[in-house]
Design brief:
The protein is α/β, with parallel strands linked by helices. Helices cover 46% and strands 15% of the residues. The structure holds nicotinamide-adenine-dinucleotide.
């Protein structure tokens, strides 16, 4: 099934992890993908993997906190592929410190990447997405990667949780502002996913338990009995980006193996 055939996607933080897998899946389902990230080598490798599988992809250096870098990503998508239909705001930063231990610098980093990055991506990609949407059967789609920590509080990463809660509500405001312009916007809320960031979330410095013991404990804390894989999130991203999700906007899609059902 080619769910996003002929569409053009920009994926922030698309070099690796959830973003990398989403870029590969979008390409597999027929989209042309612009991968934006600060990690040049990983980004180039993901582009190569997509091309080797017969898909189309381009890497751009994108620091999501810089407006000029977003403008360059949109210009690249327009020049190479004719426009932008899908924006995946996936790039994220994670710092696990208590409220008492968090510095103003930590706070500024989390707000810059997780909130300002999503705002800038949305603001700068939207005009081109609205233009493309006029002639598309359903329209364009923004998918914002939030977290289960954007649904409930977090003991380990309270400021991260604060930013992801912001992404959740910004998604709904975006959906309302853009609905008549034929741009949908939804958030995805992953549970613990096996990526570099997931490893950071699982590590408990000073713990007497080994890494393997920690992984087993985290797997058991998920009702489904395992932690998530990037493909679990990528599947939701492809669905929400596709015309199958034509009537879905402003919604929150929880993909967490049942963690927040408890
Ligand atoms: N892994 C998890 O357990 C988990 C759970 C819930 C939500 N998430 C969210 O999923 C998203 C992807 O995380 P991941 O798990 O794949 O982690 P990851 O660390 O593997 O990937 C994050 C990517 O974002 C990029 N990035 C960071 N800062 C950037 C910036 N300023 N500009 C551009 N790119 C930047 C990184 O270079 C990296 O490629 C994040 O928004 C994260 O908060 C992850």
């Amino acid at each position: 099934m080619n769910r996003v055939d002929g569409k053009v996607a920009i994926v922030s933080g698309g070099a690796r992890g959830i973003g990398g897998e989403s870029a590969r899946r979008l390409a597999e389902h027929g989209a042309k993908v612009v991968i934006g990230d600060v990690l040049e080598a990983d980004g180039a490798a993901t582009v190569q993997a997509i091309r080797d599988a017969g898909g189309e992809a381009t890497f751009v250096h994108l620091d999501v906190t810089k407006a000029a870098a977003w403008e360059n990503a949109v210009a690249t998508a327009v020049k190479n592929y004719g426009g932008v239909d899908i924006l995946l705001n996936n790039a994220g930063a994670y710092i696990a410190r208590s409220i008492l231990e968090t510095t103003q610098e930590d706070f500024a980093t989390l707000v810059a990447v997780n909130l300002e990055g999503v705002f800038l991506g949305t603001k700068i990609c939207a005009p081109e997405m609205m233009r493309r949407a006029q002639n598309a059967p359903v329209g364009s789609a923004i998918v914002n990667i939030s977290s289960v920590a954007g649904m409930v509080g977090s003991r380990n990463a309270p400021i991260y949780s604060m930013t992801k809660g912001g992404v959740r509500l910004f998604t709904k405001s975006t959906a309302l502002e853009f609905a008549k312009r034929r741009v949908r916007c939804n958030s995805v809320h992953p549970g613990l996913i096996d990526t570099a960031m997931g490893g950071q979330a699982m590590s408990r410095p000073g713990s007497r338990r080994s890494v393997d013991e920690m992984r087993t404990a985290f797997a058991q804390s998920h009702p489904i009995g395992r932690i998530g894989a990037p493909r679990d999130i990528a599947a939701a991203v492809v669905f929400l980006s596709s015309d199958d999700a034509a009537f879905i906007t402003g919604s929150e899609f929880i993909v967490d193996g049942g963690v927040t059902a408890q």
